[in-house]
Design goal:
By secondary structure, the protein is an alpha/beta fold. It has one domain (5-138): 2-Layer Sandwich (Beta Polymerase, domain 2), CATH 3.30.460. 20% of the residues lie in helices and 27% in strands. The protein is built from three helices and seven strands; from the N terminus they run αββαββββαβ. It has helices at residues 5-16, 39-48, 112-123, and strands at residues 20-26, 29-34, 56-64, 74-82, 87-95, 101-103, 126-128. The protein has a five-stranded mixed beta sheet with strand order 1-2-5-4-3. The protein has a two-stranded parallel ribbon with strand order 6-7. The termini are far apart.
Amino acid sequence: MALETAYIQEKLNQKFGNKVLNFAMSRDIFSFEATPVAIHEVIRTLKVDEDLNFHFLTDLCGVHYPDNDSEHQFAVVYHLHNWVENIRIRVTTYLTDENLEVNTITDLFLCSNWMERETFDFYGINFIGHPQLKRILNMDEMVSFPMRKEFPMEDNGRTDKDDRFFGRTAQNL
């Protein structure tokens, strides 16, 4: 029997209730949101449940949405793949700009170590329980997080770069 998105949704709803929400197909990828307190257990369930079998973490990244309300300013996005059924899934958890913390999944996927470090380095998101959370690409002395859209891409004297083309408008700066 092929793994159906309705079955995945039903299984997760039964186990997590209102901690998982907004299920939808988005560009041929089944997507949903999970609360920050439940994200570790949701990812663990997707991996270890024999019916779900999402054993491969394709990507983990941060996103900054400066125009969203304060409850949805930052997100951590997880992309998982079930190789047996060839199904991909996207799980998003939103963080407030006052509490940029979420549990690490390095105990579930070793490859998440560097992905979480990169997300910390560029967005300042703290992964609780990470074995060595420190900058991976930028200098340790940096106090800012360069992928946040609150910083202009270039200095104001440059005329060859326009922040509007990079999702940065005058209201965000």
